[in-house]
Amino acid sequence: MADRVLEGLKVIDLTHSIAGPYCTKLMADYGAEVIKVEPPEGDPCRLLGPFPGDVPHQEKGGLFLFLNANKKGVTLDLKQPKGKALLQELVKDADVLVESFPPQVMPELGLSYEALAKANPRLVMASISNFGQTGPYRDWKATEIVVEAIGGNMYISGDHDREPLSFGVPLFQFVAGQNALAGALMALFERERSGLGQHIDVSIAEAVTACIPYAFQYYTYMGAVWRRGPKRRILFGVDLWPCKDGYVGLSVIRSTDFEEIGAFLGSAEMLDPKFSTADGREEHYEELKEAYLAALKEKGKDEFFHEAHAWRLMASREMLSTELLQCEQLLDRGYFLEMAHPQAGMLPIPGEVMGLTRTPASLRSPAPLLGQHTEEVLGKLAR
Asked: What is the pTM of this model?
């Protein structure tokens, strides 16, 4: 049994941005040979910060370094006949090709799945795009805020009397990348029976929609349209509230442990009989909120978090990036790995994310310099 679960798998990476590179990063982390093909000028992601010392540099883009560790890097101009010919040679013995161009690009280059499958019928090709390879939206351009809005997430994010909100991070890019990974691995599994590859068509907007099934359940079962939350979101315990040195949260109004919450916070006001039921807490919401916030002012967020869990209460606290790097839970599980890059230096990056214990992810090499492995990978093919 190989030490790495995907060892022996050859993957051609024609992706950029986040979703595609994240898919192939996970393949590389678990042992696949991933050959990242960049245009001569490099993946645009190389120029996205943050940068060490806040100095932009093509080899030091933090997002690129994270998404492309463990890969080999080559440059090819796919607009030129020689570049296309070399790629077609690479594909002949590849298991997977992942691409994230707009849907019309690969066919226009003569590199459609149908064309590539003629040379390699066992090829699994995963295409990741904003809206998929078909449909009236397929050629539309989009950013993260566009796919979040069209996918339905923004309508239910934020306060009901304010504008819709998008997430603070491009979460659904990563979700789409994981969907592409799962689809490709399932296609490889099916290939063991049929001997044939297939085309995987991943839509980032559909990844958004797939993450909000409860919105459809409310409409299907109740005829109700799920909307953005009310101001009284202390009701659901989904907001964090200010404490002495940050933000923390407890589910208060609907909690079955409300007396314990009042005792834990040492708040006599919260133990008033008018707050003894959920309906009473909702009716006297403003008074309860005032008492709750007053009690939180006396608590530090770490003290609050650990003491609340000692009381068996469901509590939360904000975590800054610096605190995540020192989080006792993550450190105990060995979540962070260290990567030494020849240009960017030593960097911590997330490690195991898929939960494998006998064949976990490993960090074998940093993200490649632009064109670093071109001669190694393409030298024999070019002769």
From this structure: 0.91
